[in-house]
Amino acid sequence: MTSELSPIDKAKFVAAKQATEYVKSGMKVGLGTGSTAAWLVQCLGEMVRDEGLKIKGVPTSSRTGQLARDVGIEVITLDEARWLDVTIDGADEYDGELNLIKGGGGAHLQEKVVATASDRMIVIADASKKVDTLGAFPLPIEVIPFGMRTTQALIEETLISQDVLGRSVTQRMVGGDPFVTDEGNFILDLHLKRIGNARQLSLILNQIPGVVENGLFLDICDVVIVGHGDGKVTVRDSAENDGAEIHFNVLDDTNIFADMND
């Protein structure tokens, strides 16, 4: 299936393509979850097939693991890898300090475990994910099914004392049924609109019984690669004050990933 790349698809593609520059043969690589991360897996699979790249991938979800196997990437578990050279993943939001909200795909628990077991975490995103303050995207919280309504009530009570603009909490559903994570848990989405103190909120949320992990990724990301619809890529490294701009030309207007949906 082929079609011309849309601006958003081009942005995702060039961000993923630039991220492959951080991957070398012999590395153990954390593979993120989501539409942008899926493009990365496709690009790495192409390098495995056409360039002889030899890597071992640790997926952050069952669907990423299946995609990696399908494109020829050797898949291992995190326990087998023990430690990773790099993790490359998407994000739902990132701010100027490279702090993130993740979990729109419901995989933030495994994503956070894998990212923190890596020498570097690289985020690939389109320009729409940049925010001045985190919170416009609903903050996902993974909770155990037992006593979920009690856990939700405790979260709602906790939010009263937090520096946020919204306090609505909803359970994530799919087709009328509760969304279930790879770990067999549920997701509560916190519609906060703005998070004034992300560090405090993250610490307090994770102390609530029944909460497994929240979607705030603080002081974890090292590099953000932002793709733009015109094919430009902006790389922001936490070790540098200013992001360096790198330009890509998508020479082939055939969209080889046209059958991949968000």
Explain the overall architecture.
With 262 residues, the chain is of the alpha/beta class. The protein is 27% helix and 26% strand. The strands form four sheets. It has an eight-stranded mixed sheet with strand order 3-2-1-4-7-15-16-17. It is globular. Strand 1, helix 2 and strand 2 form a beta-alpha-beta unit.
Describe the secondary structure blueprint for this structure.
Layout: H1 7-19, E1 28-31, H2 35-51, E2 56-59, H3 62-70, E3 74-75, H4 78-81, E4 84-89, E5 93-94, E6 100-101, H5 108-116, E7 118-126, E8 139-143, H6 148-159, E9 168-171, E10 173-174, E11 177-178, E12 186-191, H7 198-205, E13 211-214, E14 216-217, E15 223-227, E16 232-237, E17 244-247
Parallel strand pairs: 1-2, 1-4, 2-3, 4-7, 7-15
Antiparallel strand pairs: 5-6, 6-14, 8-12, 8-13, 9-12, 10-11, 15-16, 16-17
Helix pairs in contact: 1-2
Distance between the termini: 17 Å
Shape: globular
Output the radius of gyration: 18 Å
- Report the count of strand segments: 17
What is the average of the pLDDT values? 92
Stretches where pLDDT is under 50 for at least 5 consecutive residues are 250-262
Helix content: 25-40%
Q: Could you say which structural class the secondary elements and strand pairing correspond to?
A: alpha/beta
Order of helices and strands: HEHEHEHEEEHEEHEEEEHEEEEE
Which percent range describes the beta-strand content?
25-35%
Strand order of the largest sheet: 3-2-1-4-7-15-16-17
The biggest sheet, with number of strands, parallel, antiparallel or mixed sense and barrel status, is: 8 strands, mixed
Number of separate helices: 7
